[in-house]
Amino acid sequence: MKLLILLLIFLAVLYLVATIAVWYFQEKFIFLPEKLSRTFEFKFKHPYKELFITTKDAVLNALYFQHPSSKGIIFYLHGNAGSMRTWAEISDIFLSRGYSFFIFDYRGYGKSTGKISKKDIYRDSSLMYEYASRLEPEKKMIIYGRSLGSGFAAKLSIRKRPEKLILETPYYSMQEMARLQMPFFPIKLILRYKIPTYKWLPKIQCPILIIHGTEDELIPYEQAFKLKQFLKKTDCFVTIKKGMHGNISTYSMYHNSLDEFLTNETT
Q1: Nearest-angstrom CA–CA distance, 256 and 261
Q2: What's the mean per-residue pLDDT of the chain?
Q3: Quick count: other Cβ atoms within 10 Å of Cβ 140?
Q4: What residue stretches are annotated with the Serine aminopeptidase S33 domain (predicted)?
Q5: What is the spatial distance between Cα 121 and Cα 41, in angstroms, rounded to a whole number?
Q6: 86-94 long-range CB contacts below 8 Å, 24 or more apart?
Q7: What's the pLDDT tens digit per position in 89-106?
């Protein structure tokens, strides 16, 4: 009996330590940045302008691909891993459709300095959006959020009111995602990044397009499908059958849906 009590105490202490570790190191679980030296040279198919925007406590690195006859700017918020070194390759998709493309690395990603936090991500996204909108002041702005960036994109769209919003492989909330990954921890109590996309969608006035694959191995399709109930009647929800987290753009349905959404002025 004494041995059993000691074992239970040990397991309780172990659980407490693990819970504290998850709370303290959660940024390391959520954000997986690739760091680049300041002298790193990006190489892409299309010409671009590299920008360094200074905030109160960080310097954010951005890339601006300008289309010569731009229909507007795609303001892109990327996923949780890597850097613009790979994420900016998606600019081809939008440049070929007549849109300029603006992307930046979050704090601690690529060449961007500073320490990432929830408040800073929202603040930086707003700052960079304002900067991008001044590059082509007479053109429309379209926000595109991918994976982790989809939640930030939804939040930003409430405040900035872009022409349109596109969410690729979004999640219902970061809290729901954390529960799926770590069901034995008190996620509601310890998670600082709840990012409730579902709460923000009903507040967005612009047209919304959601695209998700049924075989997504990182963010389950059900996460996005639960968001469908919060869309307006004129919004679009596209299911890519067999689509996975990283290959949706290889499907013709993705491109067809994108074309229809971008060209439909009454969507």
Answers
A1: 9
A2: 93
A3: 15
A4: 69-178
A5: 25
A6: 86/34, 87/146, 88/42, 88/44, 88/48, 88/63, 89/44, 90/249, 91/44, 91/46, 91/48, 91/63, 91/65, 92/45, 92/46, 93/249, 93/255, 93/258
A7: 999 999 999 999 999 999
Q: For residues 167 and 146, what is the distance between their CA atoms, to the nearest angstrom? A: 6
The Cβ-side half-sphere exposure at 175, using a 13 Å CA radius, reads 13
Six token digits for residue 95: 């440049």
Instruction: Provide CB contacts within 8 A for 24, sequence distance 6+.
Output: none
Domain 2-263 has CATH 3.40.50.1820: yes
Contact 248, 217 (CB under 8 A): no
Q: What angle do CA 221, 225, 227 make, to 5 degrees?
A: 125
Confidence label for 130 from pLDDT (cuts 50, 70 and 90): very high
211's tokens:
């695209």
> Which SS3 state, helix, strand or coil, does residue 240 take?
strand
Cβ 170 vs Cβ 212: under 8 Å: yes
> Using an 8 Å Cβ cutoff, are 90 and 246 in contact?
no
Q: Give start and end residues of each alpha helix (H) in 25-100.
A: 26-30, 84-87, 91-95
User: Scanning the structure block, which residue is given the tokens 């892109």?
Assistant: 76
**SS3 category, 10:** helix
Q: What is the pLDDT of residues 50-78, one digit of tens each?
A: 999 999 999 999 999 999 999 999 999 99
Q: What is the value of pTM for the model shown?
A: 0.94
Instruction: Give the tokens for residue 22.
Output: 């998850």
108's tokens: 């601690």
Tell me whether strands 100-104 and 140-146 are parallel, antiparallel or unpaired. unpaired
Element of type H or E holding 212: strand 208-213
